[in-house]
Specification:
Elements: H1 2-10, H2 15-42, H3 47-70, H4 91-98, H5 102-105, H6 108-112, H7 118-137, H8 149-162, H9 164-170, H10 178-182, H11 189-192, H12 221-226
Helix pairs in contact: 8-9
């Protein structure tokens, strides 16, 4: 490679062109290595084994895609509060938030996920979301949902983050975190502001007629028609 570059310089050939050509050759070599590796792996399987692996892989990908579609996974990548009512047990919390002062200026993610960095945000969101899914599908959700310690810590950090001037300049109450409050070294924000933003204790039975943007059924119209469920 060095000889080729030196030769190009001596004969006045464009060095950039030579470098691009060398990069192209390297890319081709890597592609050929990958192809050879795949061929050697596939040659170890019989025809029936290949068909079995192909069908199994298709089923895994297809059912995984269907599962993510039914859960409306794409909506959780945004900050749209309506994603929270994909699960109907969250309707009272969406309704009370929507009618509160926070409904004008803050989304669910503004309060309920960390904002240190994007990795921390989506890691916590995924972990917390899967915890919700686990409890929902196993019928272990509480009638009145309350924040666990990890979530409460994030919520209080976000109270202080949004209300920094109020907490640290005016009343100077935001210099502690949730765990310090649990140890009795101070008070959590909601010890005083208990009804912000969801009002009192909420449950499905306390807001039976809450008007929220519940998602449409993921079952297509033609399939609902075949099943005789259309219009029911």
């Amino acid at each position: 490679m060095l000889d080729l570059l030196l030769g190009a310089k001596i004969h006045g050939v464009c060095l950039d062109c030579v470098v691009l050509y060398l990069l192209y050759l390297r890319k081709e070599n890597i592609a050929n290595m990958i192809k050879d590796k795949l061929k050697s792996i596939l040659s170890a399987f019989s025809y029936r084994q290949k068909v079995f692996l192909l069908v199994t892989g298709g089923l895994v990908v297809g059912l995984g895609g269907l599962f993510m579609y039914l859960l409306r996974m794409h909506t959780y990548l945004t900050d749209d509060p309506s994603a929270c009512v994909n699960c109907h047990i969250m309707t009272p919390y969406y309704a009370t938030w929507m009618h509160s002062s926070h409904g004008r200026d803050a989304t669910c993610n503004d309060c309920h996920v960390p904002h240190n960095n994007i990795f921390a945000k989506y890691y916590f969101k995924a972990k917390d979301g899967m915890n919700h899914v686990r409890k929902f599908v196993t019928f272990n959700e509480r009638q009145a949902i309350t924040a666990e310690d990890a979530s409460a810590g994030v919520i209080m950090d976000n109270c202080i983050r949004c209300h920094t001037q109020l907490n640290q300049e005016f009343v100077r109450s935001g210099r502690i975190n949730y765990m310090m409050a649990k140890r009795g070294e101070g008070m959590a924000c909601w010890d005083c502001h208990r009804d912000v933003p969801h009002g009192g204790m909420n449950s499905l039975s306390s807001t039976p007629n809450a008007q929220v943007p519940l998602p449409d059924s993921p079952v297509p119209d033609w399939l609902q028609g075949m099943l005789g469920k259309k219009g029911k």
